[in-house]
Fold each of these.
Amino acid sequence: MKAYKNGKIYTVNETRDWAEAVVVDGDRIVYVGDNDGAENFIAGKQAEVTDLGGKLMLPGLIDGHCHPVMGAFFKSGVVLNGIFTLEEMQAEIRRHIEAHPGKKYYHGKGFQEEYFIQNGIWPDKSMLDCICDDTPVFIYGTSGHVAWCNSCALEKAGITADTPDPHPGRSYFARDDEGNPTGYLVENMAASMVSDRVEVIDEEEVDASFLELSEEYAANGVTALCDMGGLGRMLDYMKNGLFDFVESGKLKQRFSGCGVMVNSIGEVDDGIALAQELSRRAGDRKVDPDKCRFSFVKMFQDGTLEDLTAAISAPYLNIGTAPDPFFTNEEMIEAGKKIAEAGFDINVHCIGDMAAHGLVVMTQALRDAGFHDTRVTDSHSTYIYKGDVPKFGELGILANTTFVWHAAFEEEKDILPPQLPPMYELKSVLNGGGKIGAGSDYPTDDFGLEPSKGLQMGCTRSMYRDDIYPGSYELAPASEKLSMDDVITAYTISNAYQMRMEDQIGSIEVGKYADMIILDQNVFEIPLEEVYKTKVCETIMNGETTYRK
Ligand SMILES: [Zn+2]
């Protein structure tokens, strides 16, 4: 038995009670209450007692939206985050290639889309060919929605002027005047046609960086991961390594995943089949479903604002157009019903308000058809179509968000039309009886890995430090700022709901798994501007310490 005493324990139970002590037996919480009660509880029993010394304890944080498998893949290549000119990007890629001679391919992530947009150019194969022309080079943008490759990669993948675009106008190969692909790949369907065919994944490398990432997550207080999918071939990795890591205890988080991303109506059947296959494999291996499960299908309704591919209801100011969502409303309904009938929950990437509107229409149709138990999540909830905000509560749509995106940026003024609804109307979702969840969207965002920054930014709608991003300012309206309870609830019990584990994790209550974290400062008592500095002292998952400072 383990007892934790003299703490400030925010239990996140129904009535948001505070406690002083917790007792854990094996993987479960067996007592929550005051110090005296804990003393009585452990009297006469063998117990290891930890004095929390007044520190804050919270339920283990759940990353409700991330891509750890894809993140592991990216980590094993060249990382360009924070590099803002083409010359420096090229220099970094060259350094990486020179440091790793003789590889079958080179991959990476994090080229800055903004750099290209601001300079009126697009990523082009020639910019990589001059660094490497005999080995495929394949690099994702910061958003993870667009990719850039060299001529060798296009050749190996057999992509030529005659190759049709996988989803014209939505996911395609950028082309020159003669129709030749330029090496700029827009959205996942086009990108995976290259990445799958040149087999850019090295299983051993990915395995190693996946475990490294798991350690990093534990150090940041994360005890469960909701993996929102990767590209086609990444599944091969998941089939093997993931189950081994779960069984051996090397993975320091519970894992809930979907396997693949579904980008169009034509991919829905395959997406369901894959989720079924993964569930069956997990079942065959007798993997503990409370540690690893595949219970939802992930769909993409649009792209991103930085790539000008998010389906917003008015044209982007700089290009004068805006794309439609990937699915029509009719297709959303058809897809939603198929997934619900197969018994899976649904998680939909929506950035633009038109994308989110399709999700609302789909959920309404599901409820009307009697699918009341299907859990539906808006993966990003950036924009919600005018009038749809109350529907999140009414229809039971969980609004997931990445709090470190809750800030406004000067350069957006030239891109985003002013008639759009406000970004992240999440206090309104809560006021309408809805739930909000939180995720890092790692590896799209690296700093999202540290939830303390998110806790702060959800409350302030501003960058966590003034100097961190020149030209950023507070996102209006102030009425959408969340409370500390709101953001902690999002990271814990609401994300547990998304995993269908709200009876098992997400709060510190008797009978639940012992997933808890101890923090070095009390985020309820310090100024909000200081919250980002908060560090994790100890992370406990399933009763075991997975990190200690
Ligand atoms: Zn994502």
Note: The CA atoms of residues 219 and 547 lie 6 Å apart.
Amino acid sequence: MKDIRFGIIGCGLMGREFASAAARWCHLQQMDARPVLAAVCDTTPEPLRWFTDNFAGIKQSTTKYEELLANPAVDAVYIAVPHNLHARLYCDAIAAGKHLMGEKPFGIDLAANRAIQSALKKNPAIFARCSSEFPFFPAMQRICRMIERAEFGTILEVNASFQHSSDLDPAKPMNWKRTIAANGEYGCLGDLGMHPLHVPLRAGWLPRNVRAILTRLYAQRPGRDGKPTTCETWDNATLLCETADPQTGTTFPMTIKTQRIAPGEKNSWNFEILGSRRCARFSTKQANTIQLLDYTGGEQCWQQIDMGHEMTYPTITGGIFETGFPDVILQMWAAFVSELAHRKTPGKFTGCVTPQETYLHHKILTAALESHRTASVVKIDPN
Ligand SMILES: NC(=O)c1ccc[n+]([C@@H]2O[C@H](COP(=O)([O-])OP(=O)(O)OC[C@H]3O[C@@H](n4cnc5c(N)ncnc54)[C@H](O)[C@@H]3O)[C@@H](O)[C@H]2O)c1
């Protein structure tokens, strides 16, 4: 078993999820590499305590990320910090020779993403990927294999969304995601966009153009002191994209929704593909179910299949048991560690988001901002 010594920079919500996944690595079968937590860093000392209390192997706990990057006992870093810090911290990590799992959107905007891309070009030995876990649900992995085998026929339409309602409550206090300084002009686009775009970009469905409509519901929320504070970022975005299918050469409409105020949605990632021969649907609302419609002439009938624990990276869990969020986080990390160790993935859709895919997603999001600003259809230049 090869140990990959990890440092975590940003010990909030997502930093803890990774640590917990690393702690149950024994759940995975057939892995010949594993993450070992060696160092943690957060600017506030409080969250560090959870890590040092739970992981005896952590030898370095610091409030300065430069110290962690200078640690020769760290091979790779997971950086999960607010978006305004992505470019600086990711570029510094790459220059320090650390392999990188970065969080989305991999730079607060297109310019920041370009800076990360150029740091990677200068350091070609560094392996870098972006976190996005939802395609690792078994149902999505099955749909992805169907895409790979062109089982849908001519694609008629694709609808992908990430919708939650955590901002529906106007009394929810402000946080960094509602400020342009920390979350950028993108708002919900940058915060959520990588999730619905991950599978389309891996499939090669690059939109030719986009018409986007962005909305902001609440102008103010209570600040830390309880006083009304201005919310600066977009809450909801709907993108209608004219998209080409490289397998057939045809174009189809693709909608991408990223919404923080979606009534009735707690945390739903949805994917629907309608084709001339087959259609498929998946929603994390019913994380164990895949819906399929095969058209061979005659009746059209949606069928439901219970997926169970059909994992891309096999686990000890019995095949009939259901899958949840921590399971797909573990799968995503298995994909990262396995690709870092072997520089290949078992299939087209079984690896994490590449830096080039984050660049393309920034091109789409930047065009979406312009489309909304000018109320027009904006061409997307992939270069
Ligand atoms: N993949 C997912 O499903 C998912 C879910 C939520 C958030 N995210 C992404 O993860 C990243 C972090 O989000 P979060 O929800 O974990 O945020 P969070 O606020 O819970 O945690 C961020 C942590 O970073 C720390 N921090 C800030 N500046 C730092 C610095 N200079 N050095 C070290 N630590 C610093 C903060 O103190 C905080 O503890 C963002 O990019 C966000 O988009 C991804």
Note: The chain has eleven helices and 17 strands.
